[in-house]
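Shipment paperwork, digital attachment
Item: protein structure file
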Amino acid sequence: MSSPEQPDNPYAASMAPPATDPNSIPVGGGLVNQVMVVGILQIVLGALEFMMACLLIFYAVFFAFVMPNMENANNQEMPPEAMFWISIGCAIGGAVVLVFSVLRITSGVYSFWFKQRTMMMVSLIGGMVTVFTCYCSLFSIGVGIYGLIVMLDPAVKQAYLMAAGGVNAEEIKARFARARYGL
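Attachment content:
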């Protein structure tokens, strides 16, 4: 077990390093089969966050227009400044969550064709801001970390490059499946 470069080293690699051909598929196939899972999780989480965004926008309208016109049973009215700032906060939070929910859904759909890897990574990182709504916070963190692990895999990056080169998604999946099983 010695290499030509170091004939007396028992710890030297017995094989030459693989060539860096951009069209070669790594042995084992990487995490390419997990891209669809991340895409589905992004769509589901995006739909849940979309509902949360609609609720926050509803609260913004409620605190701005409905709440000041209601009669309070205790005759203790909330100061108008407080309602104004609550309304502004809900509107800003709703807008941010709405943007990232639409981005999540869009990037999840594009992942089925191995398109828009950058959009996927932006939605995974930026989508973690929805943790501050305390709605699906653990799910958002989990999908963000898992998705980034998958998207940063060299084989996944290569699959997205192959799609940009014109190879369709079914062929990419087939090539990486063959590489995974050594065919």
